[in-house]
Amino acid sequence: MTPKHKDGRSYGQTRREMMRRLLSHVGAWDPEGRGYIALEYRHSKLADRLKAAGHIVRSREYAVEPEKDPFRLPRHLRRIALRNTGQDYDDKAAFPNAKAATVAPCKTAVRDFLRNREEIMEKLGLFFLPDDFIASRDHTTDQQDIRRTRRDNMKALFNSLDMDGSFEGWKRGQGIPQGTRMLRDLGEITVGAGQRFCLRRHISVMEVGSQWLTDKLPAMEGLIVQWLRTVGDKRRLQHPERTLASYVFQEMEGISRTAKIEWCTRGGHTVHNLQHDGAIIEMCRGMSPRDAARALSHECSCALGYEQTVDPPL
Predict the structure, then answer these.
(1) Residue 304 and residue 293: Cα distance in Å, rounded?
(2) pLDDT tens digit string along 199-228?
(3) Is 13 exposed, middle or buried (0-12, 13-18, 19+ CB in 10 A)?
(4) pLDDT for 114-140, tens place per residue?
(5) Where are the domains of the chain?
(6) Could you read off the pLDDT of 65-102 as tens digits, one per residue?
């Protein structure tokens, strides 16, 4: 079976084919049986121009040869590929935290969501993606797999909404039949200590965020529009505010990632693989994952200027 991304897109290869492709790039093996792949990273071309113009100081870094990067594998395959090299230290809700810190109209709504994030995703997931639907769609009966898939799919929804994606587009990607599981049928849900969460209201607030941010950064928007016209990117030219918001949040991601790398350098820990805002880190002996995550949370929060928790590896 061919696995899918969180948004429903197919990886285009089976798990076996992906692992065979990755193994074909291993250039050296050590005496302990660990293989190594040399990765070179780069910014996107637009990020390079935004950085050169002084609009951002950091951005996402991508492997120059993406087919060599374990980060592009489905999560469970990524863990297999990297399990003997280190553990994943990833920011918790990186983009939502960045949005709450930078986009004033969305601040309250995003923080209300983050306060009860797991419960909201669980309750909404049971409505939109019940067990029998996932079991039939993904051909699985494993309850742990179903729960993990549901959480990943709901996380993909809120990530999409943060970046002006549409709810209906997410439904199509999930294979939810048209005309079923409508927002109007959901209403409000109760979470936390009696708080109310309304997905329709959350969506309406998220829709104004990127344009508000763009109005604050006209020079950055001008460069982005010029670049998109130059490369003939008609699709993104329809909504340049979405591209601008993405790079603003990627800057926060990059600042956090750099703080992790600098902390590792000072402490003698080894970074093996970059994961957008996170990294696969091999800690020195004596450092527990929980202590490492606590220290990284402090470093990243100080660098960003707002609280950013780093999740300890599972």
Answers:
(1) 16
(2) 999 999 999 999 999 999 999 999 999 999
(3) middle
(4) 999 999 999 999 999 999 999 999 999
(5) 19-107+207-311, 117-191
(6) 999 999 999 888 988 998 888 899 999 999 999 999 99
pTM for this model (two decimals): 0.88
